[in-house]
Amino acid sequence: MNIKYATILGLKTRYLETEGGTDTPLLLLHGWGSSVNSWEKVTEKISFGGQRVIMPDLPGFGETQEPGNPWNIDDYINFLKKFTEELNISDFILAGHSFGGQIAISWASNQNPKIKALILMGAARIAKHKKLKAQIFVFFTKIGNLPFEIPMIKSLRPLVRKIWYKLAGEKDYYKSSELMRKTMGLVLAQEVGDRLQKIKIPALILWGDKDMVTPLADGKIINQSVQNSKLLVLPGAGHAINAEMPNEVSKAILEFISKLNPKE
C-alpha cells in the first residue's frame, strides 16, 4: 500500500493512493470501525486491474484524528469535499461500504458533478425496521448522562447502557470513544432513504445474501429506488464482503467501471 498523509480541516489524515492507472480514480469509503487496512486485498486487486484507488481513513478511524466535536453525515461529506480539493481530484467514482455507503448515498444525492458513478456495498440506511435502533441512539445522544445523575440510578449506569445498546444492536459502540459514540448517534439519526431517488448516476449495488447487519432487503430497496442501478448479490457473503470475498468484490467493481467507459 502507498500510504500518505494530509491535513484536512485541521485533522491529520491518513490515506491510501495506489500507483498507476489513468482512469478516473475510485474514491473508496470504509465502514464504521474500519480503515484502509481492512481493504488491502480489494484495493490491491483493483489496482492490479489498472484502476487508481484513493481511500482515506475517515475522521475518528484508523490513523486519522477524531474531529473536535461529534459529526453527522453532512460533516463527513464536507471533509471529503475538502479532501478531494486538497488532492486536486477533478472527478471520481464514489464507492462506500456500510457507514461509508451511507455517506456515499447522501453525497451522490446532491448530484455533485464530480461524482461520475456510485458503488454501494452493504450500505447503511435506516429502513422502517431500524427506526427503534435510531431512536435509542438519538435518545442517548440528546440526554447524555443526565438521568444517571439521580443517586438511585447512578450506580446502574453501566448496566442500563449495556442493555440499551445491546437492544440497539451496535457492537461497535463499546469500541468507540465518547465523542465517536455521540457521532454514531447523529449518524443513525439521519435517514437517507428519501434521498435515493435523487441519485441519477450509474450505480452498482453489491450485497451479501447472508448480511445480518444490513439485510439484503435493504439492497433491493436501494436498487428499486435508484433509477440507473444494478444489484449484484454475492451468495454466501455476509456484511464484511471485503474480507470474505475480496476476489469477487474486486472483479465486480472492475467490470462495472470498464462498462462506464468502454474502450473502442
TrEMBL record:
Keywords attached to this entry: Hydrolase
Domain AB hydrolase-1 stretches: 25-128
Pfam family, one: Abhydrolase_1
InterPro entries: AB_hydrolase_1, AB_hydrolase_fold, AB_hydrolase_sf
Domain of life: Bacteria
This protein's GO CC annotations: membrane
Protein name: AB hydrolase-1 domain-containing protein
Naturally occurring in which organism (per UniProt): Candidatus Spechtbacteria bacterium RIFCSPHIGHO2_01_FULL_43_30
